[in-house]
Amino acid sequence: MFKNSPFYLFNLLLLTSLSVYSCSSTDAKSGPNGPMGSGVIPAVETVQARYGALPLVERFSGNVRAENQVPLYAQISAKVAKVHVENGDYVREGAVLIELEDETFQQQLTQAKAGLRINQARLRQAEAALSQLKAEFEREQKLNEQSLTSALRMEQLEAELIGQEADVELAKAQVEQSEALVAEREEALRRTVVRAPISGTIGQRNAQVGMQVSTNNPLFLIGDLTKLRIEVVLTESMLNKISVGQRAEILVPTADNATYAIEAKLSRISPFLNEITRSTEAEIDLEDASGLLKPGMFVPVDVHFGESEQATLIPTSALYTDPNTGEEGVYVAPNAGSEIPLRIDDENLSQPTGVEFIPITVLARGRMEVGVTGIESGDWIISLGQDLLSEGREQARLKAVSWEHVTQLQSMQREDLLEQVMRQRNGNNASE
Predict the structure, then answer these.
(1) Residues sharing a CB contact under 8 Å with residue 391, sequence separation 6 or more, in sequence order
(2) pLDDT tens digits, one per residue of 260-286
(3) Could you name the CATH architecture of 6-54+309-431?
(4) Are the beta carbons of 100 and 76 closer than 8 angstroms?
(5) N or C, fewer C-beta in 10 Å, the chain?
(6) Architecture of domain 60-69+223-308
(7) What pTM, to 2 d.p., does this model score?
(8) For the chain, how are helix, strand and coil distributed in percent, rounded to 5?
(9) How many other C-beta atoms lie within 10 A of the C-beta of residue 77?
(10) What is the DSSP letter of 375?
(11) Do strands 193-195 and 218-235 pair parallel, antiparallel, or not at all (unpaired)?
(12) Closest CA to 245 of 303, 158, 167
């Protein structure tokens, strides 16, 4: 076993916590079987194997995001005049978050409106001239019917009429152009006020009064913290096991160093794999009224995807690989049940009891349990302390523990184990 592995730490914790019992039960000077002799009888923990179906669980790392979590940017370049919100503020959709300096935009709008009025006046002039020319053309046309005017005059009026109609069309186009410019200036002026696009909570505030902002500067992050989304990366090999609707547990650390499991279901899985990483993303929608989860957190996510066939179950920590042969197996105390009256979680250790290494075949692996063949349900399995038996020792002092105890140790983080080891060690030194 590697010294940075959880199981090595389990054994270190076990050796620290149980050595006091082993030492107190044997005189250090009593002979080769004393603690100071070469025949030290180690203290180990043992648990009974049981029969059942192994829950198939895969653990992933989940990234917590708020629903509609989006960064907010200014849509124009300007200086910040006022900031109306702070980190943690809840705002409604449409609420004013920031006001930018708008004097330049006000002036540009005024100029655009003046240009619009000028072009509207030119249009009225062109339309009036066209109306007058049409009236004159109609009079000349009646005179022409009576042969009272020349054909040259009529051709001249027709040319003038076409030219004046073109002037009207040009004036109309100029008015439309001015109207578009006014609308653009009004929109720019509106963008000096940054509003909340959704209802949610403000975070990661970067905006400060007086700072110059542009379309590339993030001002805030906003999202609905009451509706969260857990994003989980799935590998190509897991897609045949994981599907939408399967049960998931989001494991959240609490203030008292415990772990709180939030149950949910897989909401969706993207059908498109990344061509480089060959992975895709699953999402879990979660209504987190408890407030334990925050956007940006990485949390363990256990996805349950079925059960194995019925088999003998042992804790994962009971597995041991012989460093000499590479053979995988477990240490068993075959006579523990009949010769030693074991009581679960009793602090006392048993008398020296025979132990032996038995090779096993793993049928299925879970996160906390393993389904195996080679041993029977009810056998007493050494769950912690196998390293202490690996030097050919054939006896051990047993401390019977429950499955819950073993599971709790297996669930502990490496730092928690080290802290417990040091606390146990300091307590033993104080008692001496």
Answers:
(1) none
(2) 888 899 999 999 998 898 899 999 998
(3) Beta Barrel (2.40)
(4) yes
(5) C
(6) Beta Barrel (2.40)
(7) 0.57
(8) 35, 35, 35
(9) 12
(10) S
(11) unpaired
(12) 303
